[in-house]
Design a protein that fits this description.
Layout (H helix, E strand, L loop, with lengths): L13 E4 L6 H15 L3 E6 L5 H14 L3 E7 L2 H11 L3 E4 L8 E8 L3 E2 L6 H14 L11 E3 L3 H10 L9 E6 L5 H9 L4 E6 L21 H10 L3 E5 L6 E4 L5 E2 L1 H15 L5 E5 L5 H8 L3 E5 L3 H11 L3 E3 L5 E3 L8 H13 L5 H6 L5 E2 L3 E4 L3 H12 L6 E3 L4 E4 L3 E7 L5 E8 L2 H15 L2
Parallel strand pairs: 2-3, 2-4, 3-7, 8-9, 8-10, 13-14, 13-15
Antiparallel strand pairs: 1-5, 4-5, 5-6, 10-11, 11-12, 15-16, 17-22, 18-22, 19-20, 20-21, 21-22
Organism: Streptomyces macrolidinus
Pfam families: PGM_PMM_I, PGM_PMM_II, PGM_PMM_III, PGM_PMM_IV
Cofactor: Mg(2+)
Length: 454
């Protein structure tokens, strides 16, 4: 096909519409290019439940095997299950998923051995360049001896590894509603939670890449309405929602109220610091709540602030030897999971924390949710740089106000802060604001929005 790879090779992964933007022959070229760039002798591949995933995954395997590389297919899996396989087998890996995107999309998340990320600066640009060359000149010469393609089931081992990283021995009986959104959580959750004192209420566990019930993106409030209602109806202790490839988890309390991913980050950080003797670095991006660095310091840790985006988080995890990292987007990264993100391990921490004491989740997380936030507010603008400059000019020089430009523009004082970041793919500015009380937050939010939309 006459593919435009600039449209589908993103900053961190491959993502596009099938078959309009990419197809199985192109997946085969990606497989060959991936093995060439990583220098792999063997790789591991997994895929989600999308209708196009098995064919694309097998095509990628063919491309790799034709270059003499041995391929282990682990079949249906969550993205963090693929990271587990990459870490446990010490092999480069490829996961076929488009996460929470609509059904017609698919993609590839790639990693080097030990689940080390492959992004634009760590191999993805070279993979694209090779695939583009071969599209013009024809497929590369096959190896004299092709590699093998074998299958291996890793679900039980993945579940056992996760459970070895959380002390679940003191867990009281909990009633837990889980919304898998017809995604890979429906595949992994029953095995991971098997045998625990949990009354599981499953929602949308049927694997269906057409997403017949709602989009598998729990950060959009409309996609957790069913979960909130079910938690209240069942009188459950909490609800958990996973995205399509089940690498992110989102939590609601016993009242159906959403729990901020920043509060989950702070809670898990405190638990991970306790596991590591009260010492260690904790990564948080710059739009997580003030609560996160506060809790980290209170528990003996060192907070490390970074830009938004998993490549920056993983790079800082590796650089600092951090034991845990969290993002506002409900991605959670663990040193003991090869610095990779796993929503399932974060969910186990929440269950262990709640089940290890007698109070409700709302009371437990209140300790970690100390401020009032706006959530992310997107505004379409004609000129991102012009609007950022206008904000800087409006706040620069005000008494007690500090400005930094680590990622977009962060403006802060003793009682509030806000960050405005440009989207890399759309003409948008993204605003996040937080303050010590609702009135202050609303005032700061509205002033920033007036300038942004001015």
């Amino acid at each position: 096909m006459a593919a435009d790879l600039s449209q589908i090779v993103k900053a961190y992964d491959v993502r596009g519409v099938v078959p309009d933007q990419w197809d199985e022959p192109l997946a085969e070229l990606f497989g060959a290019a991936f093995t060439e760039v990583t220098g792999a002798q063997a790789i591991v591949i997994g895929h989600d439940m999308r209708p196009s995933s098995p064919g694309l995954s097998r095509a990628f395997a063919r491309g790799a095997a034709a270059r003499g590389v041995d391929v282990t297919e682990i079949g249906l899996c969550s993205t963090d299950q693929l990271y587990y396989a990459s870490g446990a087998f010490d092999l480069p890996g490829a996961m076929f998923t488009a996460s929470h995107n609509p059904a017609r999309y698919n993609g590839i998340k790639m990693c080097r051995a030990g689940a080390a990320p492959v992004g634009q600066d760590t191999g993805l640009a070279e993979i694209r360049a090779l695939a583009e060359r071969w599209l013009e000149t024809g497929a590369p010469e096959p190896a004299r001896t092709p590699g093998t393609i074998t299958q291996r089931d890793t679900l039980q081992d993945y579940a056992a590894h996760l459970r070895s990283l959380v002390d679940l021995t003191a867990l009281r009986r909990l009633k837990v509603v889980v919304d898998a959104g017809n995604g890979m959580g429906g595949h992994t959750v029953p095995t991971v939670l098997a045998g625990l004192p949990i009354d599981l209420v499953p929602m949308y566990f049927e694997l269906d890449g057409t997403f017949p019930n709602h989009e598998a993106n729990p950060l959009d409030p409309k996609n957790i309405v069913d979960l909130q209602e079910r938690v209240r109806k069942e009188g459950a202790d909490l609800g958990i929602a996973f995205d399509g490839d089940a690498d992110r988890c989102f939590v609601v309390d016993e009242n159906g109220a959403p729990v901020s991913p920043s509060a989950i980050t702070a809670l898990v950080a405190a638990r991970e610091l306790a596991r590591h003797g009260g010492k260690g670095a904790i990564i948080h991006n710059l739009i997580t709540s003030w609560s996160v660095p506060e809790v980290v310091r209170e528990h003996g840790g060192t907070p490390v602030r970074t830009r938004v985006g998993h490549s920056f988080i993983k790079a800082e995890m590796a650089r600092t030897g951090a034991i845990f990292g969290g993002e506002h987007s409900a991605h959670y990264y663990f040193k003991d999971f090869w610095n990779a993100d796993t929503g399932m391990l974060a969910a186990l921490h929440v269950l262990a924390a709640l089940g290890g004491q007698d109070g409700p989740l709302s009371r437990l997380v209140a300790e970690y949710d100390r401020y009032t936030g706006s959530g992310e507010i997107n505004s379409t603008v004609a000129d991102q740089r012009d609007r950022l400059a206008a904000i800087k000019a409006a706040f620069e020089g005000r008494a007690g106000v500090e400005i930094d430009e680590l990622d977009g523009l962060t403006v802060s004082s003793a009682d509030w802060w806000f960050n405005v970041r440009p989207s890399n793919t759309e003409p948008l500015l993204r605003l996040n604001a937080e303050a010590r009380d609702e009135a202050t937050m609303a005032k700061v939010r509205d002033e920033a929005l007036e300038i942004i939309r001015g």
